[in-house]
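Q: What would this complex look like in 3D?
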Amino acid sequence: MTQRVFDPCGVAEASAKPRAPRLESLEGRRLAVLDNTKWNGGKLLDALVDQLSRDIRFSHVNRYKKETFTKPAAPELMREIAANNDVAVIAIAD
Amino acid sequence: MSEAALAGPAVTGDHGKLWVDDDVDLAEWYLAQPWSDGLPVVTPTPEKVAAVVQVLGGEPQRLECRVPPRMGNLTREVLAINIVLAGAKPEYAPVIRAALLAMAQPQLNLNALQASTHMAAPLVIVNGPIRRQIGMNAGCNLFGPGNRANATIGRAIRLVMLSVGGGIAGELDKATLGHPGKYTYCIAENEEESPWAPYHVENGYAPEDSTVFVIPAEAPHSVTNHVANDPQGILDSMVSAMSTIASNTAVAGGACAVVLGIEHAKMIAAHGWKRADVRSYLWSNAGNTFGALSFNHRYGKVYNRSLPKWITRERDSKVPIVARPEDIHLFVAGGAAGRFSAFIPGWGNYAAPVLRAIDDARATTANCNDGTCSL
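A: Here is my prediction, written as structure tokens for the whole assembly.
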């Protein structure tokens, strides 16, 4: 004998999105750095760019800033980053 | 028998229905689910779920909204299951639905609220006749236990955030600490004892309309003042509670709530002060200096970078607690005795609170002038 139970979660409709192809090397590439405007996000990115630049020669390092860290970047900003860069680093820091 | 054996696996049968063996303890089964809030639930039955769906208007598969960050579909049937689980009565369902629809508004930013490392939880404050119709507590110990409507309306909302929204601790809910209001956080304004027009009337609704107000909020902070017999003295205690540099409101502005206890509210009103006077006084006096909020740059030029542009970035510049007096949301509530009020900091300027009708009422232009409302 069985008894019925109820699932309160509902259906989440999602479609899988493929990841961008990984780069084999960062040498000579255009690096985007996206500041999420958190208190220490900019500091984290500065330190990261300094460290990466010791071993890698980027052709450009382009800096961008989100409106707020609590929402995704504006679509036009994401399009601009994608159009003008090969790789992007975003900050998560408090 | 182990807890896992008591809980048992579920098998999907016809039409997606779930079944467990007869010897499974259902109380343990529901407690073992990842979306559990850690408290026992009322076991749903088809009859109980159908009764709630009927109050919601039938059509069990009708989509009410999607709940972030999981973006699960909140159909009427799914909402009804959560309402039953929470122990809520069917007649509470319109309040719960209205609060969730308010939370689905983009300005409430539920996606980030659910995932935030901050402790904020949506605080729901109910106005209008439905408070009395469903027996809500707007009086003694209204933030505390003892009233089924307050307790289970807030709990049902949280269960939806956990189950449909996926805000499970450590997974999509990244709160460092959380706070007890994440179990349930729902009150009603004490319109009967308030010396002023109700909150929703001040905001353009008719007294016979019922509304929910939702604000992402920290826990209430007691404001004690047994001494003052004038508005300034009482409100200076509130100003002190508001002017910490630690709350998210102090750090990041946005909106906050002030709940005046009955004795405090009546004392203030006896001196002719209106709601707008209270808000303006608090706004004029609560806050910090830019120097205090930036630790006088002891740690570099680090401060809230979304601080309004009009605030001068100088050590002695005054930074009001919120950008505008109307960002202080003022309510009157609580028991008849006791000179206590509460300050409830918000989440910051990452979200704006939402006021929404429970039925189809629409706000019109408030018949208020400088905080005085015609009823």
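A: To summarize the key features: The mean pLDDT of chain B is 94. Residues 94 and 358 of chain B are 6 Å apart (CA to CA).
Q: Very helpful, thank you.
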